[in-house]
Amino acid sequence: MKSSHELMIRYFDEQLSDEELRELQAALLIEPELCEEFVAAAEIHGRLQEELAKGNVVSFPKVNRKWLPAITGIAAALALLAAGWWLTGSNFGSPTAGDRIELAVARVIHEEDGRWGLERNRIAEIGEWLMPGTYHLEKGKVILALDVGGTARIEGPSVFEIIDDNRIRLESGDLQARFEESGQGFTVLTPEGEIVDLGTEFRIEVGNGESTVQVVKGRVRATAGTDIRELGEKQSVAMSSGAMTAYSSETANPILDEFENPAPVVFYHWNFEELEGDRFAASGSNRAAEYGLKPGLPGRVPERIEGARGGHALRFLGTGEFLESSYRGVSGSRPRTVAAWIRIPRDATHREAHGWAGWGLQKGRAQNSESRKWQVSWNPQVKLKGWIQPLSPGSVAGAIRTDFGPGWVNGTRDLRDGTWHHVVSIFIGGKDADVATHIRHYVDGRLEHASGFQRGRVKTRTGEESLSLVVGNHLSSAQGKKKFAAGGGKKPKSYFTGFRGDLDELYIFEGALTPVQVWHLYKENRPPEPQMISPSLGEIDS
Amino acid sequence: MEDFNEEEALKRIMEMRSSLFSFLVMLLPPEADVEAVFQEVVLGVWKAVKAGEIQNFEAFAYGVAKNQAKQCLRKIGRDRLVLCDGPVLEHLAREWDKQVGFSGANDRQDSLRNCIGKLKGKDQSRLGAYYGDRQTIRALAAEEDRSEASLQQIFHRLRVKLKECIERQTAAGEGELI
Question: Which CATH class is domain A267-388+400-529?
């Protein structure tokens, strides 16, 4: 196998094979340094062509204004397509351009008499996930939470295709979409044109050879044939036969947050403000009073420092200290969200990676196929003696990581930069849920793609022999240290020394937050109402 | 909304030519007719100028360039794999924005010209033969009695050197090569 760097160098001078191109594509997506070097080299390559090419002395071609109008040039809008999340079909690997596994990209959070037609032929269900593909909404209404950070309301009869996490093709019907800042660039294609979100809410109706676009708030860029326009608030256009005409319309009403789950979702929050003795109080659902965090080792209380959002945060020194709670965590394949603010020093070593929060059954020293745990940390990218899996070669060290016994998923952004980051790990749950395909990471409110993964069925065990919530250390290390402190076993020789860094505003939700909810948690430290969190779909296994 | 006449718009796109051209070279495969795609970009921008619909000229021109590159890639992509499929294209475009920027004029091309002048004569000849005379790496390697891989490395190092020189010039007004 050629190194990606070598492929990059050769790319400018010769034709690479398809296999090599795929390898280079994947490497460019997951290796930031390579991407940086590629763009640097490409810029000079292009400028040298421009500068030295014979016959290029006159640096600008003559533009004949007479024939300008006759030429059709632009056919599509300035879409910002988010990088797709690719996973190989194997049990283990890094994202590549081959063997694409399509992931769910949207979730039904509300429906009113919604019914899917054709091959689905069933009632739309709140909580169901939508994969890329074509959907026929025969009647009624559905509201979708879009993974990139938006909400879309679709009214039947409508036919739409989810192309990927950033594009929908509306063949016919009525769609209204609203995006947070994180979702900008979302594109809706229609038979008559293309609409790109520039931070906004807009409505599109397609039918009878015409697409109409109304901007409720913000701006969109609309393209029909060669006609490109930026539309502002309350502006409307009709697209037809490659042309666009402005028209007056009644302004559409904003999308309402109509989702409501009759069974409120349990959640707990530790803000590290209230210290009762040596316990940090929890708030949230009704058992919060029982679930304070106390030192796992007697007298080893992390120092309190200035918090990420004001108030206080905790400083872990990576010397073995950790906190524990009697909260047993989320079991089985039920959905869950772990969110926190973290700050990792630039010089943090891989031994100081684990962990931010974890619970469940830990067997053996570290990674073990029999473990049935849930653990969120940064990726140490190290293979220890006794680990059963190889390392995922493209995984980014320092990126957010979620572990489940034999399975894990790593994010793409190295967080060891000495600044605060909001990190969120969401497991969307469901029977036969796989950690590799049913997990979402968000960093600073934005969807984080996967740089490496190991498949594995999620069946978190929270019963006997399992650890309840541990904060600030690897479950294995915490387990060994507790046992030793209680007078049992040998002095533990943990490879991981405990998390070194700061942690604040820890939340655990027993449900999967929507991207918009993640955004608000990041921007405003405001958790969603428990009734607004997606209901549980998975199975309990404790 | 920026307000300018067609003459001014033409002047501005001329100033951007080298940057836009290089941007297209980055996104398109080597066999693509970059010049033809660039012409489409000019026409697209021209049309928008006439319609008075541009808010940020440079960003808009880059947007049109990206769009035209996508169209070209779609056509080429029917027959064979291209490097810049959707996600890769967007990824590279974002990195371009960080390194070069979607705004600003073409002073980087002037810097490049200066920087080429500071290279050793042998390296200037190599660049001239490859980019000016369109000689292949294979032919040049045979001429120099080197392996193709080693010559590719030399060209890569030259690009890196030139990039560093441009950055220094842009930052400090004057750059020197090692």
Answer: mainly beta
